[in-house]
Design a protein that fits this description.
53% of the residues lie in helices and 10% in strands. By secondary structure, it is an alpha+beta fold.
Length: 753
């Protein structure tokens, strides 16, 4: 699947315009270039006028597999990460099945089904690397929860240790939403298994210790992310409407059998609701029949089936009343959108059930019900294929496309542009349905052979059944496979425009593929490509781009108010639409500016309103939200001098000589983690870093000479680092003690024998 990406320089298993190239490769290059030079970047000065970097969970600098970026180019490291995590997803799923006493062949089958399922393969193609990383650890977490509740005491201890590691990896891999969903799934699974547990309170406490230990190891990342989130547009959670965006449409449950029913983004543009990679749940007809046959009258099988059902219901999000209840009652649930991602956990449970179903077939269970269901589904899919073929010839498929478009949840507009799209869509659906029908009928035949044929043919049918299920996932994977060897080339005139930008000034990039390329290409962007933005910055940029706050970070402004760019050091606008050309913005402010007039505003909203007023002169006056100490004094024209002596990503060394009290305006984004400390020995002055002009920084300075360091040092990062170091030490010591105890017990048993 991905072997060529490991050997061809620069090649990655996703397209040229995907998030992998537009964001993740650029972030990894920035982060690990800084680390190679001996600096751990807490702040990113290249996007959104400066923004927390380590505090953004997607930076994932503490995630151990990402350390490959220290030794490999970002593209090569990303390709290895894809291969490693696809393998880990398969391996941990197989391990879970083996712990449930599945045969080796059944465990391998389950691993392949999960690693090749729709949510994983489609998100690899879309360049969503952090989701793949999280998908690899979810089966290990659920396996450990099951062992803690059902296995012997010795095995339970080992499972707690493994579970702590799995929780830590989920918290560090850069995808907090799936970490939250995995924890929720693990909690539901524990509740389903707990009634059969002999020592319920002890088992429940063990699961709690597992989660607490993993969270403690990842405390540096978690606490930094919490502080950033508290200052971001996500503070307080999303609205119910926003959180329910990208729910799994009920009709897309059919994609478990027919992945391209509404287009697959490769052979035909996807015209269903939301995005293909969010709503495709493909596991294959054979896997689904085996999973249904794997539901036995045994608590763990029933519990997994129930968990699969719950995850699929949660994936449907806003299409079910349960989502609204959880939105209001469950802490943290309102912080995320795209509930369709619950579907990946549902598919994982289906893969594990399929392993049990295959073992039942291999053990001689005849499965008449499974054969009947497979035959019925095969005939139903065949009838649907015949209807689609008829609709392709008569134009009767247009109603499907128009019904989906009427929901306003579909993003592909090809049916409104090309008059033959309805016929193409019907023909494509007919092909997909025919394949699914044929696969289902072949599955029924193999099940019948395994049940009623002679012993030799029965064994052959059982093996062929597994290979047939694997073939379906392989076909889907290859049908979705894509790659790219380079970044999107800049449009004509962009390089010359960037070269003309004065040093230290910023540009406004209004296209996603260039928005985060500042560190690579040497420019500072006013915007960026990320929905997690500091709330103060987002409100100002929303005014600049005349759009809602939710649109900031998506680089699709209605228009740009050039006057407001001056405050942000904006010197150039690089439009995203093809017909537009870059243009300059006159008279941007400098990086450091001394002012002697200020206005007081009652809070961030009032400060923003004052800053946006037409009468506001940003070069002479600063808007503050509390009284400065000392207050600036009006000058006769001599404001003093201020110099930038040096800087890193999250530090500025500043020197100032002032004839009177002034306010120093730093035209970089404000965050509460910034502080100013004197550099000279014996200087005990305390500096106040305050929000200015709604989104920037200000430091009141007394008369005289100042030499200080303006540094980004969030308290949450410092506290979280100490907690992580202590927890990691305890984890290593506990693991060593446990290994010694196991070895000692094993030696005693040997001596006794």
């Amino acid at each position: 699947m991905y072997g060529d990406t490991l050997v061809v320089p620069g090649r990655v298993p996703s397209g040229i315009t995907t998030d992998l190239r537009s964001q993740y490769l650029l972030w990894r290059q920035f982060a690990f270039d800084q680390i190679r030079h001996g600096h751990f970047p807490l702040w990113n000065p290249y996007a959104f006028c400066g923004t927390p970097f380590f505090g953004d969970p997607q930076s994932a600098m503490l995630y151990p597999p990402n350390w490959l970026n220290l030794f490999l180019p970002p593209a090569r490291a990303a390709s290895w990460l894809v291969v490693i995590h696809v393998f880990l997803a398969s391996f941990f799923t197989g391990l879970w099945c083996r712990r449930r006493r599945a045969s080796a062949m059944a465990a391998i089958l389950a691993g392949v089904i999960y690693a090749g399922c729709g949510p994983i393969v489609a998100n690899v193609t879309a360049g969503h690397l952090p989701l793949l990383c999280s998908a690899a650890w979810a089966p290990l977490l659920l396996c450990c929860v099951e062992d803690v509740l059902t296995a012997s005491e010795c095995t339970a201890r080992l499972s707690i240790m493994l579970g702590v590691g799995a929780v830590a990896m989920l918290a560090l891999d850069g995808y907090p939403q799936f970490a939250y969903y995995s924890a929720l799934a693990a909690g539901i699974y524990a509740l389903l298994l707990l009634p059969a547990c002999k020592r319920r309170w002890r088992a429940a406490a063990s699961v709690a210790v597992m989660f607490a230990g993993g969270a403690a190891i990842a405390a540096a990342q978690i606490m930094a992310a919490m502080q950033f989130a508290a200052e971001s547009v996500r503070a307080g959670g999303l609205s119910l409407a926003s959180a329910s965006d990208f729910s799994l449409p009920p009709e897309n449950l059919l994609t478990m059998l027919v992945p391209g029913l509404f287009g697959d983004g490769m052979g035909l543009p996807y015209y269903g609701r939301w995005f293909f990679w969010e709503t495709c749940l493909f596991v294959g007809p054979t896997a689904l029949i085996l999973a249904a046959w794997g539901i036995r009258r045994e608590r763990r099988a029933i519990s997994i089936a129930a968990l699969a059902g719950v995850m699929l219901v949660l994936a449907m999000g806003g299409y079910t009343p349960l989502f609204g209840v959880l939105f209001h009652l469950l802490p943290g649930f309102a912080s995320f959108r795209a509930p369709a991602r619950f579907g990946l956990l549902g598919v994982l449970c289906v893969a594990v059930l399929a392993a049990g179903g295959w073992d039942r077939v291999a053990d001689g269970s005849r499965g008449r019900a499974a054969i009947g269901v497979a035959c019925g589904l095969g005939l139903a899919l065949g009838a649907a294929a015949i209807y689609a073929m008829h609709a392709a010839a008569t134009g009767g498929f247009a109603w499907v496309i128009h019904a989906l478009a009427a929901t306003h949840q579909s993003f592909e507009l090809a049916w409104l542009i090309h008059p033959t799209f309805a016929a193409r869509a019907a023909s494509f659906a007919a092909t997909q349905l025919s394949r699914a029908s044929l696969a289902m009928l072949v599955t029924a035949g193999l099940l019948a052979s395994a049940a009623f044929a002679a012993p030799r043919r029965r064994r052959l049918a059982v093996v062929l059944l597994a290979w047939f299920a694997v073939a379906q996932t392989a076909w889907f994977g290859y049908s979705q496979r894509t790659s790219s060897d380079e970044f999107m080339p800049p449009r004509r005139g962009y390089e010359a425009a960037l070269a003309s930008v004065p040093a230290g000034s910023r540009v406004l990039v209004t296209t996603n593929w260039l928005a985060d390329a500042g560190e690579r290409d040497g420019f500072l962007n006013i915007g960026g490509y990320n929905p997690l933005v500091l709330a103060r910055t987002a409100r100002y940029l929303a005014a600049v781009e005349e759009q809602g706050v939710d649109g900031v970070g998506q680089n699709d402004p209605m228009q740009v108010r050039d006057r407001l760019l001056r405050l942000l050091r904006g010197a150039m606008v690089l439009p995203g639409w093809p017909s537009a050309t870059p243009y300059a913005v006159s008279d941007p402010l400098p990086r450091l500016l001394l002012v002697d007039h200020y206005k007081l505003a009652a809070g961030p909203d009032a400060a923003l309103a004052a800053t946006l007023a037409d009468s506001f002169d940003c070069a002479r006056t600063v808007v503050l939200e509390s009284a400065p100490r000392p207050p600036p004094q009006a000058s006769d024209g001599d404001l003093g001098q201020v110099r930038l002596l040096g800087e890193t990503c999250d530090e500025l060394e500043i020197e100032a000589d002032l004839p009177g009290p002034r306010v120093l305006l730093v035209t970089d984004a404000y965050s509460s983690g910034w502080r100013a400390v004197p550099v000279d020995a014996g200087d005990s002055r305390i500096y106040q870093v305050m929000p200015a002009d709604g989104c920037l920084r200000a430091i009141p300075l007394a008369a005289g000479r100042h030499h200080f360091l303006l540094e980004y040092r969030p308290r949450a990062v410092m506290a979280g680092t100490w907690i992580s170091l202590a927890a990691a030490g305890i984890y290593v010591a506990t693991g060593a003690w446990l290994m010694i105890a196991v070895r000692r017990d094993s030696r005693r048993s040997t001596e006794f024998l």
